Amino acid sequence: MRSSGSRLSRSPNERSLPVGMRQERAFLVGVDYRGERSSRRSVPQAARAATAPRSESDPQFSPEESLSELRQLAISAGAEIVGEVLQHRQRLDPATLIGRGKLEEIAQLAHSASTDLLLFDHELTASQQRNVEGVVHARVIDRTQLILDIFATHARTREGQLQVELAQLEYMLPRLGGRGREMSQLGGGIGTRGPGETQLETDRRKIHRRIRHLEHQIANVRRIRRQQRQRRESVPMATVALVGYTNAGKSTLFNALTKAAVLESPRMFATLDPTLRAVTLPSKRQALFSDTVGFIRNLPHTLISSFRATLEEVERAALILQVSDVNSPISAEQDAQVERVLKELEVGQKPTLLVKNKIDLLPAKLRDNLRDDAGTVHVSAARGIGLTTLLDRVDEMLSEDATSRVRLRVPQREGKTLALLEARSRIYSRHYQDGIVEMEAEVPESIVRKLGEWRIP
Predict the structure, then answer these.
(1) CA-CA distance, 449 to 360, in Å (whole number)?
(2) How far apart are CA 254 and CA 250, in angstroms?
(3) Nearest Cα to 326, choosing from 293, 367, 298?
(4) Residue 77 phi/psi, 5° resolution?
(5) Going from the N-terminus, what domains does the chain have, and what CATH number goes with each?
(6) Do residues 24 and 79 touch, judged by C-beta distance below 8 A?
(7) DSSP assigned state of 350
(8) Is the dihedral of CA 176, 146, 106, 1 positive or negative?
(9) Quick one: which of 120, 99, 162 has its CA closest to 26?
(10) Distance of CA 3 to the CA centre of its chain
(11) Which stretches of 183-260 are DSSP H helices?
(12) CA-derived radius of gyration, the chain
């Protein structure tokens, strides 16, 4: 058990401020009920991350790693961490998750730290949440609620806000029953015989009505996105989707490749709304790169369902770039979680290139020993290292609008055609004679079709 003692005090002025006007103080509660500790701690963290092979088995997060991730999530949500505890149990307590004795101990620690809320690294049932709140006298939220709150904070577009609200309502619906006195449930005693579940049923009807409305609006979003995609697909241009664990550096890599200005942030889930940008590959073909929402361990199913419209860009992609933080001590576990979500989206069989990012943060000796292979490229998006190799590999793996080497005789007066060839092809030789340009070039098929009369057999 650990508590951050340096943060337990708070000035009287700060204590008097409403919660909405100050940084909330959070106490973290981790739960390990597997009865075993990971032995992987004996391996140096950076070495294990840099050299961990990809495996069909699903590596597991240790309790400490899971609690560390909850800490990052809480900081991303804007909380101040005032303490944390990790409870080991052979089985979960059905009433309080962690047991009554441990809960009372945590309540004392949380009170001494002037805690505003308890964050559980495990999903709580409605009754568990209610029982815990009754002991600690503070707000209690679980990991799923925390992720939903971060998504709600970072949703910028109307589409993203619709998707987040739908996920929140679907999470809230089964947890309405018995949420305090405001639910007007029947009591036992004089003056407590209220209207029963009338208010609860009314709330459920309102939520069901709102869910149907949101689903209708998201369906419209999917229809519009499908029409836009059909217009794009009329031009032979492949889509390359960047996926990966949250905070793996996808947006930084996307900006480095496309010269876009997508928000780059060390906070988790900084990117929710998909962004598409065209990139000219070394062969002079063009491809659309798509930045997507980050994945995370135990990503709530309601979020996957709600963000289906956004994740359709991954489903339709010709190539997936799976971005991995090579410097993370749990890189292998994070990659396994990403692959699990890709399988759930039924895109696990798509051509995939593993992009191990942030190699600039590794020790020089480890960095020098890294080797690319057919399925892996090592880069530093922040420093621009390895990006040329990455684009070369993407170019090799895409089959859309394939290039071919042709000989051409184009009149010099055809300035538009010559400019198109200059911009969209690799020119190997060029000779001028009698107002004619003879050239040999590697040209995408979409351009070759426009050059019929000037091709030399």
Answers:
(1) 44
(2) 6
(3) 367
(4) -80, -5
(5) 5-37+45-151 (3.40.50.11060), 235-397 (3.40.50.300), 403-456 (3.30.70.240)
(6) yes
(7) S
(8) positive
(9) 120
(10) 30
(11) 198-233, 250-258
(12) 27
Structure tokens at 374: 């057919």
Which two three-digit tokens encode residue 420? 């198109």
> What would the two tokens of residue 404 be?
């071919």
Per the prediction, the chain carries an average pLDDT of 79
Phi, psi (rounded to 5 degrees) for 233: -75, -15
Give kind and range of the element (H or E) at residue 342: helix 331-344
By DSSP bridging, strand 286-291 and strand 275-280 are antiparallel
Per-residue pLDDT averaged across 208-224, rounded? 88
Look at 424 and 306; give whichever has higher pLDDT.
424
Beta-bridge partner residues of 430: 439
86 contact partners, CB below 8 Å, separation of at least 6: 1, 2, 30, 31, 32, 63, 64, 67
In tens, the pLDDT along 11-69 reads: 444 444 455 556 889 999 998 876 444 434 333 343 444 444 444 444 577 888 889 88
Could you tell me the two tokens for 382?
């922040």
Q: Report the predicted TM-score, pTM, of the whole model to 2 decimal places.
A: 0.72
